Amino acid sequence: MNSSLAPSLSPQQIVQLLGARTEALPYARPVQWLLTDSRSLTSPRDSLFVALRTESGDGQRYVAELYEAGVRHFLLHEGSLQASAYPEANCYFVPDTLAALQLLAAAHRASLPALQLVAITGSYGKTIVKELLYQLLSPRYSCYRSPRSYNSQLGVALSLLGLRAEHELAFIEAGISQPGEMAALAAMIQPEVGVFTGLGSAHQEHFASMEQKLEEKLQLFASARCIIYPKDKGWISARIEERYPAERLRSWSYQDPKATLYIPHSLTHADRCELTCIYRQQAYELVLPFTDAAYIEDALTALCLVAELAPELLGEASLCSRLRPVSMRLEVKEGARGCTLINDYYSCDLQSLPIALDFLRRRADSSGMRRVLVLSDIEGSGLSDEELYGEVARYLRDYEVQELYLVGPRSSGEAKRFDFIPCSCYPDTETLLGSRVLEQLSGVCLLLKGARRFAFERLYRSLSAHVHQTVLDVDLSAVVSNLNHYRSLLPPGHPLICMIKADGYGVGAVELARTLQEHRVDYLAVAVADEGRELREGGISTHIMVMNPELSTADTLFEQRLEPEVYSFALLEGLARAAEAHGLSDYPIHIKVDSGMHRLGFSAEDIPELAAQLAQLPALRVSSIFSHFAASDEGEAKRSFTEGQYRYLLGAAEELSQRLGYRPRYHILNTAGIERYPEYALDMARLGLGLYGISPTQLPGTTPIARLSTVILQLRELPAGECVGYGCRGLTQRPARIAVIPIGYADGFSRRLSNGAYAVSVHGVLCPTIGNVCMDACMIDVTEVPEVAEGDEVLIFGEEPRPIQALSAALDTIPYEVLTTLSPRIQRRYWRE
Ligand SMILES: *Cc1c(COP(=O)(O)O)cnc(C)c1O
Asked: Which residues pair with 497 in a beta bridge?
């Protein structure tokens, strides 16, 4: 903190406001700037230098130098300097210069009664909430916000002194580290609205208990007409509700419909979060461009204030599209050895540092982790190293960083400033990587903040948990495009059953189901009741069919409204008894007819008996009758067999309907059937593989939805004749460059792919496996790839030149098996345009 704009103040006003003692007022120019750090002097003739006493010294020792430089207003502690030494200057003497500055701030704030002042406090998230509020409301109001994270006794005073008469709305952060501090801040700020972000363990050493710290923070809101807070915070919210009358409280909650903003549904995608938000009985659908839970909480806190000040904005689609991650993109990942990694991709500047540190503190606090920072040189700040790192050191103290790694010559040169914590220095990223010191950290929360030139992504990668380097990316937009493609092959509006059994063919059933539900498919189908329950728990309300129900799961079926397929008399009877026990009638079931596949199902001969039994079972009602093609993808040779299956189903279904006295729906088409036999569409069609972008008859028009990739862990140059891997099965035929990739048979990358049986793609070049595939890794020959490096992406399957069929062909199987055998430990990542 250094030099900031002040309201224009005449010498007489200063004397009067502060009750300051002066010996003479020889200088008449009003004050325009406040100077609290002598190094930041820019306009000496218009500046008031405030000599502050801090831990590191007394500002009064700079007075002579500043007088020399032309400064003519000095705010000084009583009794330390002689005004006569500075004959041309106005010296204002007070008992405590900081308190005097706060008095000026309070007076200035009080002179702006039309201003709506919002004060933000809490252990974390203050700066983010403040910035989000500014993004949401500045298009509507003339808004002011405290600069950076000015939230201390001095910072708040300087923030308030920056207010102007034209501001309609101001967001002021207030932070405390000790008991007794909030009273001074509250007296200055006098907020109309108070925002409470949350309570963590920061600064706990100065407080007897969390309760005491909360009480201290809440003092800020004594005069506020309304108070905004998150309601789902247990005793903390309860305390706020005890302390303030209900008519002043505004809250948001995921759980409590009585909150001002109630969020009954929220769904986080790869790149955003969709929520339903209920305010005054009206529902609003909002899309936040955030995925981190903490960020979403901060945004909800901010939206709660929007509802208070300008509820009509909630209905504007553009409202949340204004939101941006606060001056940066932070990514949080689980690292190896129980570490949490926070990667700050955006930039490495002084402005974004406190926000990232705030984030670090909050993340670490919530899990009791040690706070570690890896920081590169900060470039382009325009400050001298001394100034820059003085400021950095202040932030590190404020945000209680506990361990520091500095990378780069400039920051290393200033390492002495960080003697209050363990600090080590490295000239460049390579050296830090080579030292492997970071690999010795375990269970810490690590913020990586590096300028682009320092390529911290290499650190990030080396610290990431290995399981995360192999990723299945799922493109949900492609799912929708495939859905529409198959709809176009069927009569308009034809009902569809989407098959998402086996966890959505290995891709992830819940995310798929959400997308499909949004696109109004009529039915989802899973294999077993537990899969159906997972969908219900994931908020899926569409009809769900269970293809292989077991009697032992009957309770789950009925409780979760899952509709069983019935393929035998034993199952029929068991289900009917269970349904009666649940007091059900007309519970929908789906009758499977075996028309030639000879797996499960009733035959035509069973129909009279089946109809007779059903007539005695009012608990159940047949919702559909169906069969499954055995060879619809087998080409013309099987056409007459397939036609036979269709006619067999139709005959059996007609007979059953006749005997039942009502007409259930009929269906037989699977993906290949839709492609080849659309004339058998009947009443519904069942879409499986096609949804996943795989056309069984190689019809154009589908889009692959899944892409499996990993990265090169390590590169090694080998001479000809060296053996590679277990059992020395691989032998280099020539000097070769061999890469290790973290995918093995435990991930579903079969051992049958060893020794060149499959080639992956690196930069579009096919690279065969060499040696045997191991459990967690394998080796590939990358000799032909120009400019290959560790960390480069490796495509296992996805787009050309490696569609999934290339892999299934290498394994002599079908794409279904490739997808469904991918291990759950492979991270699934969902994308949507
Ligand atoms: C899996 C399944 C389907 C989907 O088959 P695709 O060939 O993937 O379209 C259709 N019907 C039944 C009964 C199934 O079990």
From this structure: 523, 686
Residue 572: CB partners within 8 Å, gap ≥ 6? 566, 589, 610, 613, 614, 617, 620
Tell how strand 73-77 and strand 47-50 pair up.
Answer: parallel
pLDDT for position 1: 38
Residue 103 lies in a domain: no
**pLDDT tens column, 87-127:** 999 999 999 999 999 999 999 999 998 999 999 999 888 88
pLDDT at position 496 is 96
As annotated, the active-site residues are 501, 726
CB 419 within 8 A of CB 315: no
Domain assignment of residue 44, given as a range: 2-96
Residue nearest ligand 1's atom 13 by CA: 628
Domains: count for the chain:
5
pLDDT tops 90 at residue 208: no
Say whether pLDDT at 833 is over 70.
no
Higher per-residue confidence, 720 vs 301: 301
Phi, psi of 236 (to 5 degrees): -65, -45
Atom of ligand 1 nearest to the CA of 686: 10
Q: Are residue 408 and residue 537 in the same domain, yes or no?
A: no
Q: Which atom of ligand 1 is nearest to the CA of 626?
A: 13
> Do both 257 and 160 map to the same domain?
yes
Pocket test for ligand 1, best of 512, 544, 628 (most atoms within 8 A of CB): 628
Which of 692, 724, 744 is the last residue in one of the domains?
Answer: 692
Say how many Å lie between the CA of residue 604 and the centre of ligand 1.
22
Ligand 1 pocket test: which of 498, 503, 667, 670 has the largest number of ligand atoms within 8 Å of its C-beta? Answer: 670
Share of the chain above pLDDT 90, in %: 61
324 neighbors 353 (Cβ within 8 angstroms): no
The answer as to whether 700 is a domain residue is no
Rounded to an integer, the average pLDDT of 585-592 is 95
User: Does one domain contain both 454 and 564?
Assistant: no
Closest C-alpha residue for ligand 1 atom 6: 688
| Same domain as 764, residue 746 | yes
